[in-house]
Amino acid sequence: MHANGLVVIPAFIRKMFGLSKGSKVVFKVEDNKVYIEKETDVVKEMEKFAKEANVSEKEINKLIKTAREEGTAEKMKRCEIDVS
Known about the structure:
Largest sheet: 2 strands, antiparallel
Radius of gyration: 16 Å
Distance between the termini: 14 Å
Number of strands: 2
Shape: elongated
Strand order of the largest sheet: 1-2
Low-confidence stretches: none
Order of helices and strands: HEEHH
Number of domains: 2
């Protein structure tokens, strides 16, 4: 870790997960462990799921709304973590 808090992700891991300059990742903390996950486009995932499951447009919109609300709640949780 650099003095200013930057973390370098090794090249083989970036390649394995398709990360490149500008890619977004999410840091999650559980049981004194830090996990790094590639940020996904929840809306695209929900649309793909809905299409495969033959779900109506109304149901798709409800799933997208729920996903956005959950994403906002998760972002708020991350902001509450004191990293000092």
